[in-house]
Every structure is written in structure tokens, then in C-alpha cells.
Amino acid sequence: MNPFVARLADKQAGPPLGTFLMSASPLVAEAIGCSGFEWAIVDAEHSPIGIAEITHMLQAIGCTPMLPVVRVPWNDTVIVKRILDAGASTLLFPFVQSAEEAERAVRATRYPPEGQRGMAGLSRASRFGALENHFRAANDNIGIVVQIETPQAVDQIEKIAAVPGVDAVFIGPTDLSGSMGLYGQGGHPDVQQVLADCAGRCAASGTPIGTLAGTIDAARAFARQGFDYVVLASDLGLLLSSARTALAQWRSPGADAQAGAPDPVPPRY
Ligand code: 3PY
Ligand code: MG
């Protein structure tokens, strides 16, 4: 079974927290993998990450216990083939609008006769040919998560989730709020209501559902609402919020007085 799908099925362990990796850096990907995050999304939709970076980031993550998911830039059979060849085995598809589009996503990930994935003898996916069973085993080991990001897709969520091969859904609150005419307002009550409804509908149909949270409090709230997994921000987001907090403290008058007696040379910087 695909390791990410298996982790989602392990309800006892609680909802796994992940983060987006947008910095296109294998070093950062490896560091996040060593930080304790259970899983992370290599984001090839909204970052400079291309095939070479995906390959190198997967190599780096492979040295850590963290489970990688790769978000493909689009539901495109050729791009999907290249990303699978690079060794990705769990894919996140943005903007899936219908059951037909979900079927197209699944087909792109399956070798014939089930699908249309092209075959190459020396891909990283087959350990450069060393995995003799690769072509027979690969179809059963791919995990697919599809993103629901518009009201049209929300209407279809049960049909999309029921497509054989779809393992989980993920609500993208940024695009969802934009397509609801509430640009930049993922926290708007109307958007939050749609998220809560989706969680209820997916619980009823037994489909794991996840979404994006900007803070740990929001992540906890989503878990309480029934979300099965949550993405906390991104590597860049976590870096920038920590940088901004540090600068705000530095610039805040009276910060010295509040600071107490910190270690002037921290053991890790
Ligand atoms: C979105 O919010 O639209 C995303 O794709 C990421 O969560
Ligand atoms: Mg989106």
C-alpha cells in the first residue's frame, strides 16, 4: 500500500501534520524532514520547482523519515509521467473539477492496460531498472489526492472522491475563496462553512479530507472539525513568519527589558 495512504488510514495516530515545500531547496527539504514533520508536499504548482528540483528534493527527503507528496503543476499526462519517473509515488492534483478530470488524473498515473503512463526502463522510479517487479507493482503503489478548489468542484465532491484510484481530497482554501469572489479571505465565514460542509460530506462517504492551515490553532480547529490531515503553511511561510517575529521583537521599544537574560550564544542558530 502507498505509505501516505496507509498513514491516512491509521486513525489511531491522529491527523498527520504536513507542510508545503516551496523553496526549491533539497537542503531545506532534508532539514524539514529531520524536524519531525510526518509528511510534506513538494510544490511544483506555485514555486520555481521543476523536474530536476523534484528529483533532488525527493533524494534529500529519502534520507529522512518524512513522507513526500508531489503537487503536480497541472493535470497533464506528460508532466505526470515525468514526475512519476523522477520517483514520486504520491501526487496531489490541483483544480480537479469533475469525476472525468479525476479519472484523467488516475489514468495518467497507471501503466497500461489500466492507464496511459509511458514506460521507461531506467527511471529513478524503478531504481534505474533494479526493481524487476516495477511495471507490475507500480500501479498498486501510487497514491492520488485531488484538490477541490471551486464551488463547482465542491458540488461534485462525492462523485470526484468516488473515482477508483482517488485516495483522498484536499480543499484549497485560497483558490476556493477566490473563486467564491472572496479573494484573499480564506477565513471568511462563508468559505469556512464550505470547508466544514465538505468535511461532513467526506466523513459520510469515508473519504479522507485535508486542507491548509496558517497556524497551529487553525490546524487543531480543522482536526476537531473532522479533517483527516492538515498542511501547516510552507517552508517559506514558516521561515518568513519567524523572521518577521524576530524583527518585530528587535524593533519593539522596551523589548530588552522584557527579554530577561537569554543565552547570548545559542547552541543552535
Ligand atoms: C489553495 O489554498 O488554493 C491551495 O492550493 C493550497 O492549499
Ligand atoms: Mg490552490
UniProtKB/TrEMBL annotation:
GO terms for molecular function: aldehyde-lyase activity; metal ion binding. GO terms for cellular component: cytoplasm. InterPro entries: Aldolase/citrate-lyase_domain, HpcH-HpaI_aldolase, Pyrv/PenolPyrv_kinase-like_dom, Pyrv_kinase-like_dom_sf. Residues 18-240 form the HpcH/HpaI aldolase/citrate lyase domain. The keyword Calcium does not apply. Pfam families: HpcH_HpaI (PF03328). This is 2-dehydro-3-deoxyglucarate aldolase. It comes from Candidimonas nitroreducens.
